[in-house]
Amino acid sequence: MAANGDNRGGPSAVGTNALVPHNQGAGAISFVNFAPQQPYDERLVFWEHRGLETAAAFRLLRQRLIDRGDPRTVLCTSAVRGEGKTTLATNLALAFAELGRHRVLLIETSFRSAAVAELFGFKPPVGFAGQLARHRNRIDDPWVVVHIADSPLYVIAAEPRCCPNCAAVLAEEAVFCGMCGKEAPPDDGSQIDAVTFSKAINKFRESFHYLVVDAPPVLASGDVNRIQDSMDAIVFATRKGQSAAKNLRRAIEQVAPAPVAAVVLMEN
User: Over the stretch 123-132, which tens digit does the pLDDT of each residue have?
Assistant: First the structure.
């Protein structure tokens, strides 16, 4: 599937294509077309505020990564929750896609607090957690990836935790559904299968030049340690005026000796 990287104004708002995978054969990647509609989420700075200083900062980060070895697989994380790692990962992926030279795949591995699909405005046809579980035993099944229309950006998002009664999206630590008021099912605490994840990354490398991973916070679980060996570089998000330096130091120590390429100060 060819992607046009010359549309610098963001995806066109011509309607949303049905998210139905197109099977490409055993072991291949099935693409699902999606055209986001305005208004865009304000966190998508390349679509909403591409001329502002924030977009320029992500372009600078992109260029520094390219100048310092040009890592093809970049893991974006934070020490704890609420420090802007999803905003970081999404806009770094958009920054790479803005170049218009290569396909870029944004991968969400924060299974306990999925947010990427909601940010773009689609419901994952098949979530990444479910795909990883299925590929443990069915390695020839196609991977399902969402293509953001009129751009070289592709997304494989995690399934949001939803209320079984009304299908409303639940907050990470919700005990009751805020929509229907019924008791929320407990978080199953799914862990990332490192072996299957590594095989997936190797497969994606064949079709995409840059892989940007939105990973869980380092200190919240051991998930980052399970997948960091598949990454070329790690970028940390910290929140201006909120993040604790001691937490960042602990997180960097926990991923050592993995290469930390940058620490990004996110605006509130």
Answer: 998 899 999 9
